[in-house]
Structures are given as structure tokens and as C-alpha cells.
Design brief:
The complex is a heterodimer of chains A (about 120) and B (about 110).
Chain A (H helix, E strand, L loop, with lengths): L4 E3 L2 E4 L5 E6 L6 E7 L6 E7 L2 E4 L8 E4 L6 E5 L8 E8 L10 E2 L3 E5 L1
Parallel strand pairs in A: 2-11
Antiparallel strand pairs in A: 1-3, 3-8, 4-5, 4-9, 5-6, 7-8, 9-10, 9-11
Chain B lengths: L3 E4 L2 E5 L4 E7 L7 E6 L6 E6 L5 E4 L2 E6 L4 E6 L8 E7 L10 E2 L3 E6 L1
Parallel strand pairs in B: 2-11
Antiparallel strand pairs in B: 1-3, 3-8, 4-5, 4-9, 6-7, 7-8, 9-10, 9-11
Classes of the chains: A mainly beta (about 120), B mainly beta (about 110).
Chain lengths: ~120, ~110
């Protein structure tokens, strides 16, 4: 596809449910980042993959958050036992290189998660 | 501790006017300062970016001014148009090392009235 694709666009989960959010990066992009954007705030870094290796997960807020990218392309962010404070837009970004200045650093439109 | 502070939170500008958004940063190791534009329901899109070795960068109606000694940078939108109405985020990052994430400000909601 032409851009970073995220699904679902919207997700409503009951408190305590597990959710899985998918990111399809631009084909050939080595790096993949997940960010969390709370309402009225800027995006905050969660985790980073270079190909299939998760090189930085320092931004994951708790051990209920887990991300994987097993074949170096599609990535899934999983949140277990969702809490109301997990309600946010989850953004995925991918790029050809390894940093924010790398060519093609592009964000997807995000998944809006609402925990009720 | 908020590493990138952005102001104002919201801004209303008349069509044709100049929109000015300011950011200040703490970490002197930052060396890449982009501005992103976000429309409702969309992800942030890169607008313009600057490195600290220059004091100003202009692309069309958008200009970044950078003051390294004050650790401040700003976005100027000249001849503001209703289509510029969006949320703008400043950001910063360290050198282009593997996995360096962007640190974002809290955003400025710009409304351009016609």
C-alpha cells in the first residue's frame, strides 16, 4: 500500500478485555515505532523494532503491553486486561532507516481505543 | 519532566494573518527539530524540520526559527488559510541513532477564520 495501514480504526473494549492492534508498515521499511496519543496530548513513544528485533520497549507503560513483529513486517500491539487509562489513539510509524530523520518516516492514522 | 514545552495550547488567526507557535526544549543533546501537522482522525504528518546548525528554514509559507542558546524554536505560518486549521506538534530527537524516538510537545490547535 501507499502508506502505513492500521486496523481496526476504532476499538471499544470492556475493562479487563484483551485487545490486539495491527500495523502494516510501508513495504521495505526497516524501522517500526509505536506511539500512544492520549486525548489532547502529543504522541508518546512506546516501542521500536528494527526488522523483527524489538530494540527498545522502554516506553511501554506496564507489563500488560506487549508488541511483536515476528517476520519483520506487520506488527501487533497487544494490551492485556485493558484499563480505562489505556484509552487513547495508538499510532504506528515506519521508516526506511533507523531514526526520525530517515527517509519516509510516516505515521499511520492510528487505532482509537476506548475502554469502557 | 516535560522535555518539549509548546505554547500556546490554542490559537485563532484571521485568514491571511501570521500564526506563530513556540517550543522550548531541555535536552541539549537534541539535534533534530521537526514540526508535525495533524488533522482529526489522521496521523501526524511531517511539515518542516530543522537542524541546530541553522537559525532559520523556510518552505513555502512555513518557516522555522531556531535559537540554540535559548533552546527555543518556533513555527511561523505566513498568509494563514482555513485549510491550515489543524493541530500542530513540535518535536525533538537526538542524533539519528537507531531507534531514536521523537519527543513531542502537547500540541497547538490552530483555527484560521475566514
Amino acid at each position: 500500500g501507499a502508506g502505513v495501514s492500521q486496523s481496526p480504526r476504532y476499538k471499544v473494549a470492556k475493562r479487563g478485555q484483551d485487545v490486539a492492534l495491527r500495523c502494516d508498515p510501508i513495504s521495505g521499511h526497516v524501522s517500526l515505532f509505536w506511539y500512544q496519543q492520549a486525548l489532547g496530548q502529543g504522541p508518546e513513544f512506546l516501542t521500536y523494532f528494527q526488522n523483527e528485533a524489538q530494540l527498545d520497549k522502554s516506553g511501554l507503560p506496564s507489563d500488560r503491553f506487549f508488541a511483536e513483529r515476528p517476520e519483520g513486517s506487520v506488527s501487533t500491539l497487544k494490551i492485556q486486561r485493558t484499563q480505562q487509562e489505556d484509552s487513547a489513539v495508538y499510532l504506528c510509524a515506519s521508516s526506511l532507516g533507523s531514526g526520525p530523520r530517515a527517509p519516509g518516516y510516516t505515521f499511520g492514522s492510528g487505532t482509537r481505543l476506548t475502554v469502557v | 519532566q516535560q522535555q518539549v514545552k509548546q505554547s500556546p495550547q490554542s490559537l485563532i488567526v484571521q485568514k491571511g494573518g501570521i500564526s506563530i507557535i513556540n517550543c522550548a526544549y531541555e535536552n541539549t543533546a537534541f539535534d533534530y527539530f521537526p514540526w508535525y501537522q495533524q488533522f482529526p482522525g489522521k496521523g501526524p504528518a511531517l511539515l518542516i524540520a530543522i537542524r541546530p546548525d541553522v537559525s532559520e528554514k523556510k518552505e513555502g509559507r512555513f518557516t522555522i526559527s531556531f535559537n540554540k542558546s535559548a533552546k527555543q524554536f518556533s513555527l511561523h505560518i505566513m498568509d494563514s488559510q482555513p485549510g491550515d486549521s489543524a493541530t500542530y506538534f513540535c518535536a525533538a530527537s537526538r542524533a539519528n541513532q537507531a531507534g531514536t524516538a521523537l519527543i513531542f510537545g502537547k500540541g497547538t490547535t490552530l483555527s484560521v477564520s475566514s
